[in-house]
Amino acid sequence: MERTQYKQEINMTEALMSRINELISHYPEDKRKSALLPVLHEVQDAHDNWLSFELQDKVAEILHIKPVEVYEVVSFYTMFNQKPIAKYMFEFCRTACCATRGVEDLMEYACEKIGANLGDISSDGMFQVVGVECLGACGYAPMLQLGDFYHEKLTEETFDQLIEDCKAGKITLHDK
Amino acid sequence: MGKKILLEKINIPGIKTYEVYRQNGGYASVEKALKTMTPDEVTEEVKTSGMRGRGGAGFPMGMKWSFIDKKSGKPRHLVCNADESEPGTFKDRYLMEHIPHLLIEGMITSSFALGANLSYIYIRGEYMWVYKILERAINEAKAAGWLGKNIMGSGFDLDLYVHVGAGAYICGEETALIESLEGKRGNPRIKPPFPAISGLWQNPTVVNNVESIAAVPWIVMNSGAEYAKIGIERSTGTKLISASGHIKNPGVYEIELGVSVEEFINSDEYCGGMIDDRPLKALVPGGSSVPILPAHLIYKTAAGTDRLMTYESLSDGGFATGSMLGSGGFIVYNDTTCIVRNTWNFSRFYHHESCGQCTPCREGTGWLEKVLHRIENGHGHEEDIELLWSIQSKIEGNTICPLGDAASWPVAAAIRHFREEFEYHVRFPEKVKNRNHFVAEPFVKSKDVMS
């Protein structure tokens, strides 16, 4: 991926910095690096849910570590997005238990509904359907994750409703 | 109704909040331990309980505690493993969501036993809303004086924080979890040294599963001997089982170890029987890593005795005819399930989740996924079945952490018990082209099909 392919406006607000400092205080003074994962979540949530290299450099600076120590972590963990995502990304659990309860058919339905192939962002930038591995909701399948929350025991009807709620601005992505 | 230890109070309205939890006897184990017991006495009770670690490996918890290095004088840590990611497992989440203070109480009492003054709960990143529930609960406990300096005037200090992961199954392995807690990629460490000697920041560390820690308050209040009376033989106590798949009532159930598998699947108290009353085809009793059992080995062992929900009975017969209790991720399959597709699905999972550190796992899981994919989609060759067997045998035992074994076992067991189904896929490619082929026409072992 080209470093310059996607641009992102960086805005480290006072509220964000105060939360970051609180997270850093959870670890011994000489172990600032330990706060990396929680800090990346906060920073990503505050920046349209993705992390540009510039933003990752900023995190390195805050934690007093080298940029590569951030890059190698961001590229390892699936919840960190290295490029822009749709406003509402539906992450369907596709692992075995959900598969027994019809998630594969539901994912096809969802792709059709948003008018984009699996993984692609819809033309209006609003929606995206992706398949992820086990989310720990096996008994409530099929299900998806949207932001910080799970939507479980889905049917085509409840998925339609979810799309409507997104369009109506009724869905909050993060619990702050 | 079996005895409930962890979920006993789960239905009390408001039990999620500090006030209600406290009014119902919450935090009594902290009072009892800090005021009337020594740390070693708490450890002794846990040892006597015989409880085996509830994360999956089943290692005796009291013994694990006794390995922690108290001589070096280095700071010690307790880390709770709430990275629950084993497919089929969703029990820890249930506990943390509905009764978060039980885990926090367990963390305080256990940290006291280990002499840990800085402890963490490592929760998987996807459980973001549960992370927030725990953070709020910790703040409540702190405000009430259960955390911080000189708790209850006992001289014991404890700081407790939640640390959030970011989507990596491998971080459920304790040394990968520690790496991740240090802000690094989740690559498991070579052992020894074990975390009890050199763990978080090279300090002595104990890593325990949520369910294990949540049982400590009961053990402290009622004694290890009382706990050991529940269950059968070396499977003492109760266990949370996450039931999913083709059953009427999927969900989390607390059982006394020793309930029969037949009762667990069919009783209305638990799974409530099979959906649409279709026949049972297979069972994965302990999370995706454990060997799958075919119908004739589910209710009875190969020796003909009743199969029970215990560590011993589920593994009766070894891998030839048995499985494992594992994490209690209980996945039930009916006759419409394609075992090849399910095995491919598992292999895709392990390929995706391999950290990439060891060659046999990094490359081998990819090969398993690819070969299974082609068999499932009607492009397989007869020799592919032997190829799969060969790959899995070369991963098992040849990796730093157990993820390699976990990727191998489901493939080996599927071939061992359902070889005809793999052969059918290879011989009749046109019949398996449709993804839901066995929903339309369930696979029946018969000479007519195969001859």
Pick out its properties:
heterodimer, A: 176 residues, alpha+beta, Arc Repressor Mutant, subunit A, Glutaredoxin, 2 domains, four-stranded mixed β-sheet, 7 helices, 4 strands, elongated, B: 451 residues, alpha/beta, Rossmann fold, Ubiquitin-like (UB roll), de novo design (two linked rop proteins), 3 domains, five-stranded mixed β-sheet, four-stranded parallel β-sheet, 11 strands, globular
What is the topological layout?
The complex is a heterodimer of chains A (176) and B (451).
Chain A: H1 14-24, H2 36-45, H3 53-63, H4 67-74, E1 88-93, H5 96-100, H6 103-114, E2 127-132, E3 144-146, E4 149-151, H7 156-167
Parallel strand pairs in A: 1-2
Antiparallel strand pairs in A: 1-3, 3-4
Chain B: H1 18-23, H2 28-36, H3 39-49, H4 61-66, E1 77-82, H5 91-98, H6 100-114, E2 118-123, H7 128-143, E3 159-164, H8 174-181, E4 205-209, H9 210-222, H10 224-229, E5 231-232, E6 235-236, E7 238-245, E8 251-256, H11 261-266, E9 280-284, E10 293-294, H12 311-314, H13 318-321, E11 329-334, H14 339-353, H15 359-376, H16 384-395, H17 403-427, H18 437-440, H19 447-450
Parallel strand pairs in B: 1-2, 1-4, 2-3, 7-11
Antiparallel strand pairs in B: 5-6, 7-8, 9-10, 9-11
